[in-house]
Each structure stands twice: as C-alpha cells, then as structure tokens.
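Handout, section 4.2: multi-component inputs.
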Amino acid sequence: MLKSKRVDISVRRVGHKIIEAIWRLGYASRFFALILLKSGPSFLRLHLTIREIYFSGVLSLIIILVSGLFVGMVLGLQGYETLQKYGSEEAVGTLVALSLVRELGPVVAALLFASRAGSAITAEIGLMKATEQLAAMEMMAVDPIARVVAPRFWAGVFSMPLLAAMFSAMGVFGGYLVAVVLIGVDEGSFWSQMQNSVDVQKDIVNGIIKSFVFGIAVTAIALFEGYDAAPTAEGVSGATTRTVVTASLAILGLDFVLTAFMFSGVG
Amino acid sequence: MERTTLDLWVGLFVVAGIAALLVLAMKVGNLSTYNAGQTYTLTGHFENIGGLKTRAPVKSAGVLVGRVTAVNLDPKTFEAAVTMSVDSRYQFPKDTFASILTAGLLGEQYIGLSAGGDEVALKNGDKIMKTNSAVVLENLISQFLFSKAEEGGKK
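Output:
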C-alpha cells in the first residue's frame, strides 16, 4: 500500500517535470515570436541596436581574435606533425582553412560568444527583472520586449557572423604564422593549395549561414533565460548558468544538423 | 541624435568583420582565381573517369585553362559525359586529345588537353573525339598480376 503510493508520487513528479518543460518551451516560442513581431523599433531607433552591438559584438572582439589566433596556430602545428609523415606538409594550409571555415570558426566563435555575451545578456535582463525595471517600463507604457529585448536580439544576430568571420581569418593567419614563418612550409603552395580546395560558395557561405543560425539560437536563449529568471539573486545566477549550458548544447546540436544538410551531398 | 564614440567602435567592428569576410573570400577561397570571364563549353566521352569531380581543373601543358562543370553518364553508350568550360582566350584544334590525369601519386584528378595539328578549332558545344580514360590503380595491379601469372605458367 505504502509502496504503491511512493511509486504514484514519483510518476507524478516525472509527469510534472515533462509538462513543465513543454510549458516552458511553448512560452519560449511565444517569446521568440514576440521578439520578431516587436522588432520594428530596433531598426527605427537604430542607436538602441548599435549600443547593443557595441556591448555584445565589439567587447567580444578581444577574446574572439586571440582565441582564433591560438586555435589556428595549434591547427597548424598539429596538422604539420601529421601531414609531414605523408610528405604533404603543404596541405597544412588546406587543413587549417577548411577546418576553420567549415566548423571551428562558426562553432568556437559561437561558444565563446555564448559565454562572453550571452551570459551578460541573461544577467542584465534577469537583474532588470529582479529590480522591477521591466515592470516599471510597462507602467510607463513602454514595451520592454520592443525597447530592451529586441535590440539585443538583432545585435547578437548581426554580430555573430562578423565575429565568426574574424575568428576564421585570424585562425588562418595563426596557421600561416606557425606553418610558414615558424616551420618553413613553402608559402606559395600553402596559399595555392588552400585556394584550390576552399570553395567560396560551398565552404565560406555555408560557414556564414551556420554562424547566423548560431547567433539566432544563442541570443534567443540568453534573452529568454534572462526574461524568465526568478527575480532573486539565486534565480539570476541559475539563469546565467542555464544560458551557457543550453546555448552550448544548442550550438553543437544545430551544428550537427546543419553540417548534415550542407556537406552530405555528393560533391 | 548626435554621434558618439560608441558609433565609431561599432563602425570599426563592422568594417573589420567585412574585411575578414573579404579576406576569407579572396585569400582563402578561390574567388580571385575563379574568373567569370568569357568561356566556351566542350564535352568529352570517357570510358572511365576514375575520381574526376565537378570543378576539377582542365589543364593544357600544365596551365589551368578551364574547369569541369558537369559529369553525367550517357544512358546509351554507358560512357561518362564530361562537360567543361574553357577560357575563350584559348582555342584548341579539332583533334585535341583529352585525357584524365592525376596530380602526383595520390592527388586529385584533372583533365589534360594536348593540342593536335588540325587547323579547325573546337567551337562552343563541340565534342572532343579523342579521349583517354583515367588510370585505375586496381586494373593496373590486376594486369600486372595476370602477366606475372602467365610468365609463371610458361616456365
């Protein structure tokens, strides 16, 4: 009798969790639709969006550029180590460029963006909610989604592809530094092999599409977590953690789906 | 609304991002080497194209003169029909020989054109009559093995 009751309670708890998750997903979807609907002001009053581009894009530059450089340098070093066994160390340029432009550029830049800018967005909006600034805006008939949320969304969506492109360019430069300047791979074949195998449409444009999608995902998750955060110190810190975790998982999952779509065709 | 230093930073950010995209397209990608100039189309039927792919280079005397645009199977002859676009600056005689070659031992495959002596030049849409198929390593090995076995039988 007692046992069946305990089972009953745990089943109920699981069901409650599932319903709660679906409820939250629906709320998030409605939030996302509202952002898109109310994004008029973020283009009409462009200075709002530009301010946010500064905070999420420009201030992320240092970490993006430095990491890009180091990732490229490591790729150059590791690629050279393996390729020289097969006597084709000139292909290190191809290796560095393709892995950066197709995968590492968009993905690593988005991961860094999620932890650098996404967490800041969540904390900011969560704190705005906790200190009742959003409620105060509503009292003054200012829509917080149009005034606060939408500009941050478009700023993130706009910055992400630019950051990913800079990451890739910096990484190629890092690979060049290690392979050509440091190790002494022939410069001409480094660049020409790279140019022969990197296709503008297939590789570079697809990489940009990827980073665009990641930008949408990361900023939407960060904004929703902030907006949905419990208005306490604990709630904001939990929301910030969830932003980084969910956004990173979303990036990697989406990357798999997009890669399957983009590169599975018969070349 | 007046200009702020923030606008300057955002402007710089956008310029740097676009510059990075241009660098990727020009220096890393093949936008600069891929000239969309005047080209004309040639086709050729091959018995076996090996690993030839679209966008593979078409070379003559080692100089890049065009690219493969399509690879199809001819449903009647069961031969591979390869379409290539060749730069209009280069005209080739009617009896040009097209063969599928490999760059290096394990490199990518490309089409090599060696000019003949005919005075009439190939025109847009023409078919190259003389073709030479790709060398398939497995066939070579099996030929070698068969000839070895024959030698062994004679002894």
